Every structure is written in C-alpha cells, then in structure tokens.
Amino acid sequence: MYFLGFDLGSSSIKACLLHADTGQVVASAFYPEKEMAIAAPKPGFAEQQPEQWWENACLASQAVMKQSGVSADEVGAIGISYQMHGLVVVDKNLNVLRPSIIWCDSRAVEIGNKAMEAIGEKKVLPHLLNSPGNFTASKLGWVKQNEPEVFAQVHKFMLPGDYLAAKMTNEVVTTPSGLSEGIFWDFQDEKPADFLLDYFGFDKNLIANVLPTFSEQGKLTSDAAAALGLKAGIPITYRAGDQPNNAFSLNVLEPGEVAATAGTSGVVYGVSEQIKFDEKSRVNTFLHVNHTVEAPRYGVLLCVNGTGSLNSWLRNTLLQGNISYPAINDLAAKAPVGSDGLLCLPFGNGAERMLENQDPGANFQGLQFSRHGINHWTRAAQEGIVFALYYGMEVMETLGVSLKNIRAGEANMFLSPVFRETFANVSGATVELFNTDGAQGAARAAGLGLGYYKSRDEAFVGLSALRTIEPDSSLAEATKEAYGRWKEALLNG
Question: Of 107, 158, 350, 468, which residue has the fewest beta carbons closer than 10 angstroms?
C-alpha cells in the first residue's frame, strides 16, 4: 500500500507518494516549476487563484504516479497540508467567488483590531487565545464589509486545504485545528466561537461540517480521480495547516517538542499541554493535530513572513536571477559573523504578527560602500532572518516553551550552513535536520487517519536525522553580540 500527501504552499503544490510499510518516498513532484504568482492589487494585499492550486495539484499527482509506476489501485489514502490562515469563499455549486485572500495579506488588520476592542480582551484572549488580528475570520469580515455583493453569495468559507479537499470529494468539511488557525474556535467550550460569529454577523451555516483531523473526510469522485491520475473512492483521511503538519512530519507531537521551518515564511512551533496566550498576540496558539479533550495538545506558533521570500528577492532582483541558491549560501559563508556591521530587518512581506501586526517593510542598515560587498548582503539577510525568529522565540520562552532541541527538515533555508549555524549559536539550541517535508508528513498522517498505522512508532518508520548542529562556543558570543545590535536597531528604528 502507498499513501499520497499534498502540500499546498504559497510557491507550489508538492505531491509525495510514500510506501506504507517502509516509510520511504517512492516519488515526489511539485508544480509549477517556477513560483506561483501572488497578486497584490493594492498595497498590503496578497491573493492567489484557488483554481490554480487545483490545476497544479493535478499536475503534481499525475507526475508522481507516472514517475513511480505505482498502480492507482495501490493508493490507500490521501493527506493534505496547506498554507494557513487563507480564505476561500464559494457559492452553493462550490464555485469560487473571488481570489483567495492568503496568509500574508494585511488588509484585515484593523477589522481584527476593532473586533478585539469591541468584544474585549478579557473575553477574546481566554477563549480564542489570539486577537482576531489578520486571520481568516477578519478576512471574511473584510469581504462582508467591502464586497457585500460577493458576501451575499457565500455558501461556505474554507481554508485553502478545505478547498483542495472539496475539489477532490465534492464535500465541504473542515477540522477543529483548521478553525482554530482561522480564529473561529472557542478553546474553553471546544466548539466554534458563537460570540465571534455574532460580532461579525456570520451565519453559523457558513462553517463547514467539522470532522477530526485524522478521519475519513470524503472520497475521491470519479471526475477528481481522473484529473489526478488516481482511482475513484480513495479516502482523504487527514488535513492540517502547513505548520502543524510540519511539526507532525518531524514527529513533534508531545509537550516540550519543537519544530522549525524556513520556506517562504519562517516558523518555530512548540507543543504544549497548557492553554497559554501572549497578551499581545505576537506568537499564536492553535490546536495541534493530535489535540483531544482528554489529552490536550496546543501548538504555539511564531511566524516571520519574509524568510525564503527575502532570499528569493535577493536572488531575482539584486542578483538578477544569475546565481543558484547554493551559490548564495557559499557567498554568505565568505562574510564574517555579524556581516561586518551590516544589519537586515527582514520584514517586507506584509504585516508581522510578531510586531503586533505592524508592516514596517524590510531594510538594510549600516551599509558602508568601502566595506560591504555581495557576501555581506547575503549573510546579513540570512542572519537577519534568524535574528527575527529568535526575537519571537524569546516571547515563546515566556509561555513555557522549551527551546533546547529544535527539529527541522533539511530543506529551504536550513540547507545553508550559515543559516543553521547562526540559528544554533544565537539560540543555544541543538538543531536536528531530518529527511522529511510537508508532503511526506501529510502522506504519513493519511496512514494514521486510515487506521493503517496503529502507533506513532509505526507512522514514523523511515524518518531519520540527517544532521545535528550543536552551538559552537567559538562563534556563539560574536553571534549574540550581532543579535544585540540587530535587536537595538529593531527597537529603536
């Protein structure tokens, strides 16, 4: 038997086919080969076309099946990971009514802030654990306020993964974890937050049917199966936002365990069994994928919007696309720790929750024409991303999240020696890099949702650490001094 995982990202849709018994990837593919476009019709807006997600998912699935030579009869279940906090709205025929307002879109910040003020912090924070801020609920509020003719046609709102699953099954369902990331979940009452729906004037019927994260959530229709190169009737048995799923893919499921990722955005995600919240909502708490009432599990999430997106900007704009990412990493390694005084504040991809939903833009500081070259620029960018993550990690520690050991996939920014070594040296944490990614995690989770795997150990057969990075005492002091200068520039900027 094989399990198929999809990871719906901002840049591409990846598919992965996993052998159920060995836990080995037999094929993987992603589409498009170039990054998906993010439309910005106005400053602070960020939109994508859900129909393009589906087209790319079909292409990736077809490629995986062709590459593997596996019969569609042998695919036992499908799992879906997806970019968090996005909004998709559909009519009764499941037609998309407008482009998706995705995670890094900033338009709804004030709407969320007004909701927080009107309802009151004493109600919002204990029940939602977060300000409505710039999350899915506020984005739907924006549609209602600014596009009433669209809102009047809305049959259901969905998260991006809900949409992908609906295209596969013709059924609209969601999960508690998904609703919590959209700030629709009441953590005290363990159900959708009626008081928030009432505030925004949302009919309860706009919420899809809520099913467990690991469960049968519909089966492939014949039309969807034909488009994907699969067989009708295959069940979808798992869906989760990309960061909870990234944690799952790294076997981060229990209190005290921590995962990190640095793709388009950068995230540190720690698991806790206690309901805690940051009063300023700089880091956010959601239901983890394995949460139950009997054994509560919460994911405390720190996000920096512009990580891989900054690296991409450097490559495509400053370096005009004439250099590979490995070559950029080599350039960065030629500059000294601290980039000889050049600092990068990497906040150029929308409002940053870590900065209380401010959108200051990115900037480099301390540039000296006679001292700084491209080596310094590339290293300063990577150090700036790490320092931004660590700034938020300091907040996470106040919520009781231990950061002594952090797991990540050996991918994206963690492929850079400068990035991963700076990460270990500034945080003091041991960093373990694993042979996994989001699509592979979704495939493993599909096996759990199907009931094929009976235990955590069975589900993670084949997962192994490829590299361990310990803090380097000879570089830690200089790295922390550089972080101090970076933090001063942030706070005094």
Answer: 468
